[in-house]
Write a structure and sequence with these properties.
Layout: H1 4-12, H2 14-30, E1 45-47, E2 50-53, E3 60-65, E4 69-76, E5 83-88, E6 94-102, E7 113-121, E8 125-134, E9 145-154
Parallel strand pairs: 2-4, 3-9
Antiparallel strand pairs: 1-2, 4-7, 5-8, 6-7, 8-9
């Protein structure tokens, strides 16, 4: 029984220990620095001096220079009637150089190939390039996918 008086403060106040632990936890949490913002990864990859954009770059931003070319590659299934079309852009800043369709290497009828749009930056500025995947003869109600990228065009 001689040890009991030494243990009494610990036994009488378990709530106090829990309260102290919470206060210490909150104090260390309040003194921490704010979380760092994640680094913004630019859209696209560079291939043969051109910026190549894919579906993975949808809703992202890319930087290019006047005179540089951009290639947008998107999966397309022409046999279903759905095709990619440019929905919106600024033709003073961005010029369409050409488009082509590459058939699927293997697969079945209706398998998706790849639609490529090649564009050139004409003037410095900011332009939103928007494409839609649709059946032209069915109109806007047939749009099943959209692709959008913001291009920041810098002087040479």
């Amino acid at each position: 029984m001689l040890l009991m008086p030494k243990l009494r403060p610990f036994l009488l106040a378990p709530f106090a220990w829990v309260l102290l632990a919470l206060i210490l936890l909150l104090a260390t949490g309040c003194s921490s620095s704010p979380p760092e913002e994640p680094a913004v990864v630019p859209a696209g990859t560079r291939e043969n001096g051109m910026l190549v954009l894919t579906q993975a770059d949808n809703q992202r931003t890319a930087e290019i220079r006047v005179g540089e070319q951009i290639v947008v590659r998107l999966p397309e299934s022409r046999t279903t009637g759905y095709v990619w079309a440019i929905d919106e852009t600024n033709r003073q800043l961005l010029a369409l150089d050409g488009t082509r369709f590459e058939e699927p290497k293997e697969g079945f009828i209706g398998a998706r190939g790849t639609r490529s749009y090649t564009l050139s930056a004409r003037q410095a500025g900011k332009v939103d390039l928007k494409l839609k995947y649709w059946r032209i003869w069915e109109g806007e109600g047939s749009v099943s996918e959209r692709f959008s990228v913001t291009l920041l065009i810098q002087d040479k």
